[in-house]
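Box 3.1 A note on notation
Throughout this textbook, protein chains are presented in two layers. The first layer is the amino acid sequence; the second is a C-alpha cell string describing backbone geometry. Keep the layers aligned when reading.
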Amino acid sequence: MTPERPRGEDAMPKAVEPSDDGARLTETSPPLPTGPGQLYAALDLGTNSCRMLIAQPRGSQFRVVDSFSKTVQLGAGLEASGRLSRASMGRTIQALRICQKKIEKHGVTRLRLVATEACRRARNGRDFMRQIRRETGLVVDIIAAEEEARLAVISCAPLVQQETEQLLVVDIGGGSTELVWIDLSAVDPEDRPRSIMRLHSGFHAQGPGDARVVDWISVPLGVATLKDQFGDVDDDAARFALMSWFFEEQLSSFSPYNAAQARAGFQIIGTSGTVTTVAASFLGLRRYDRAKVDGLVMTSDQIDFVIREYLSLGPEGRRRDPRIGRDRHTLIMSGAAILQALMRIWPTDQLSVADRGLREGLLYAQMSADGVLEDGPFE
C-alpha cells in the first residue's frame, strides 16, 4: 500500500477529493451559540471500534459526562472485497443506536460524529453514511486523513513537555496510522502545549513563534489492516517480524528526517489502544487504570520487554492474559509491530503514552472554535 502524503513543502493539505463512489469528505459545521453548561459529543467510527464521549467544558479542559465504546469490526473483510460487509454494518448500526439514545438522553446539541479509514476506502462508504442517517438519525462525516491526523495531534496537547523542540505524534488506528512531525523550537517553552491546541484550525503555516507542522503522513495500515496483510503466515514470531519490517518500509519517504535530529528535545507521543495496552502490561495492571497509563513515559527497552513477553505467550497465552483483554488479543501483535518499527527508526529512546485520541481531539476542536475553553495552563 502506498502511504497518503501531501505533495509540496511542509505538508500543507490539499483540497479534499471525493472518494471513488462520489462521497465527499466533509469538514466541521460552523459553531452555534453556546452556554456555560453546554454539552458536547464526539464520536469516532473506526475500522475496528465505535467510540463516543459526551463532555462539558471545564476551565482549559473538559469533564466527561458519559462515554461509549464497542468493538464493531466495521472493516472486517474490507481488504479482500473493497466493501463494508452487511454483517459489519449491522453491528455498527446497533452500536450507533445506543449512541443516539445517549445523545438524546443528555440533550446534546453540539456534536461531531466522524468515520475514518474503513469508510474512506470502502466503495459503499457513502451509502453506509446514508443508511446510518435513515436508521439512527445521526449524521456521520467521513473525514480526510489530514483532519484525522490533526485531531489526534491536538488531543495530545496536554502531554507536550516544555523542553520539547521537535514533536512526533503517532496515532495507530485500526485501518491507518497517522504520523505528524511538528517543530516547536520557535515557540516559548511555556506556550508549547497551547501552541499545539491552536492547530485545531488546520496544518497551515502559523505565524512567527507558533508551532510549525514540518511534515505528516497517513499510512493505510493499522492494527486490523496490517494483521490481514499477513494472515496467511502461520509462525507467530515470523509474522510479527514481517509486519514490523513491512510497516517500516511504508515510511521510507518519511523516516530519513531522523538522520539530522538530535535526541535532546525530541518527544514521541503515541496514542492508540496498542500503546495503552503495552503500557498497562508493563505496569502489570489486571484492571485498566487510565490515571496510571495516560502520560506514562516508557523507554524503548521497556517496550521491547513487553513485546518479547507477548511473543513468548503465543496466541493462546495472549488470549488468556487479562492485561491485554479479549477484544484486543488478536490485534495486539500487529500494533506492537508498528510501535516497534517507529521506535527503531526515530531518534529517541522514550515514548509518552496518551490515553486520548480522535474523540478528545474532536471535543477540543469544537470547544476551541466556540471559545468556551478558558486561557491558562493545562491542568
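Residues 6-34 have pLDDT under 50 and may be disordered. DSSP finds 13 helices and eleven strands in the chain.
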